[in-house]
Amino acid sequence: MVPEKKSYMDLDLRRNADYWNIPISLPEVLKASKVEDEGALLHLASSDGVKSKLRTNTDEALSQGCFGAPWMHVRSEGRVEPFFGSDRLPLIGHLIGHQYEGPLNHLATSTPV
């Protein structure tokens, strides 16, 4: 990641945390996630196995045309369709025949297929 992007992402993360009133401090996140041993988690996250899996997943995503995160491939009725961005979750729900149950569900204009 280029340093400029990291700086922007850090700022954007803080803005979103403030807007949604969600704490982003590591101890609070770990506690909410029920992580009991943060040292073990940090050790595992920096292990060669995890780094290798991340590289494999990244290479696979790039080969599929990924240009950002989150990147998802959804399989439905024999088709595979790519989606980028969490704001596409209502469309994914529609594609797989489920109603989106997110915070802006009242704005949806279609029903599941």
From TrEMBL:
GO cellular component, one term: mitochondrion
MF (Gene Ontology): glutathione peroxidase activity; glutathione transferase activity
Coiled-coil annotated residue ranges, if any: none
Residue ranges of every copy of the DSBA-like thioredoxin domain listed in the record: 37-92
Domain of life of the organism encoding this protein: Eukaryota
A GO BP entry: glutathione metabolic process
Full protein name: Glutathione s-transferase kappa 2 (inferred by orthology to a C. elegans protein)
Species of provenance: Nippostrongylus brasiliensis
